[in-house]
Amino acid sequence: MYVGFTGATGKLVEGNKILSWSFSNSNFSIGHALVTTNLPSFVIPQESVFRSNGFVIGVSVGAVLIVVCGIVIWAVLVRKKREKTEGKEEIKDWELQYWPHRISYQEVYAVTMGFSEENVIGFGANGKVYKGVLLGVEVAVKRISVESEHGMREFLAEVSSLGRLKHKNLVGLRGWSKKEKENLILIYDYMENGSLDKRIFDCDESLILSWEEMIKVLKGVASGILYLHEGWESEVLHRDIKASNVLLDKDMNARLGDFGLARMHHHEELATTTQVIGTPGYMAPEVVRTGQASTQTDVFSFGILVLEVVCGRRPIEDGKPNLLDWLCMLIERGDLLSALDDRIKAKGGYSVEEVEGVVNLGFLCAYPDANERPTMRQVLKVLEEERLDVNLLERIETTLKLSGSREHPTFNLSSYASLATSDIILEGR
């Protein structure tokens, strides 16, 4: 026979306890009946667990934690959904076409320490420029105001032109960012030696460019402009070439920047520009008259830049003759060497022939008749060979009337210099 116990409940769970047991294989009538008295009590009287303080406190705390976690999860999901939705709404078709990648506004805000005034390194027409470090690399962050239509046009021009250009003598555009209804942001390579303008007019004499450094800078700028005009699938007109838009990297290589006024079009097509835009003193006569821009208007601006760098004088200064008229007077007196910046003279390393050649080249580039100006390819060839091509030299002598009589050159900005500075309202594209 088998003796055992069972407490089967099927699929239900139940606790069973055996408090004691006895067994007999004899007749129960003889006095060997099972002992069923004085057994331990199974039921222990106690207070209900549901009424205990611990249970109440535990349930209350748990409920609060569940509610708090639910709110946090809901807030995170809603925020992610909102960011995803807003991101889709903000990204326009044009934003997907260009190489510079978009950088989050939070990241840009962090690298500039919240656009701290301590990080300001420059000022543009539509905003400030800040220094920052992005992914271990120093960058310049340009914040453009969206309050003016010019700001948006400048931003689009920079991204659509500089964003697709790559050349050693152009400032590199690393990326862009924007915060709706507040800021448009461009992130560039940081140029350790600042702008050419500061190296000419706002630095210690020890930092003034030597003749050799000056020629190197002019070659770099000319190379960058040539790339814009001929080296890409479209022809790009910079339209604002000037000393403050030429930046110098750690090796003193020139980088042309600020493409806020740039226009691009297919080669052999005329640019459809009709508004007078640019910087007074650097604008070609045809731009002042008609607003029409071309590669030759960039050549004119480069010519003014050459003369400005060599002479250490701005194109237009209050109370002084404009740069070109002043140079014409020196040429008339046969004293062209006096045009050279005294600080460059003090450093030496040049010849009279080199100075005259570069000044004459600047004059030819800035000639009033656009058809008489050389191309940037010819200009770069002159600078690289450090001598004037025979044909160019003949054109310069003829143009400036220096081959015989020392007459005052037929070159004068007086007719439009005043117009450019007072009567023209500069507008964006």
TrEMBL record:
PROSITE patterns: PROTEIN_KINASE_ATP (PS00107), PROTEIN_KINASE_DOM (PS50011), PROTEIN_KINASE_ST (PS00108). Residues 115-388 form the Protein kinase domain. It comes from Acer saccharum (Sugar maple). This is non-specific serine/threonine protein kinase. PANTHER family: PTHR27007. It catalyses: L-seryl-[protein] + ATP = O-phospho-L-seryl-[protein] + ADP + H(+); L-threonyl-[protein] + ATP = O-phospho-L-threonyl-[protein] + ADP + H(+). The chain crosses the membrane at residues 55-78. Gene3D superfamilies: 2.60.120.200, Phosphorylase Kinase, domain 1 (3.30.200.20), Transferase(Phosphotransferase) domain 1 (1.10.510.10). CDD domains: STKc_IRAK. Its EC number is 2.7.11.1. One of its GO terms (molecular function) is ATP binding. Keywords: ATP-binding, Kinase, Membrane, Nucleotide-binding, Serine/threonine-protein kinase, Transferase, Transmembrane, Transmembrane helix.
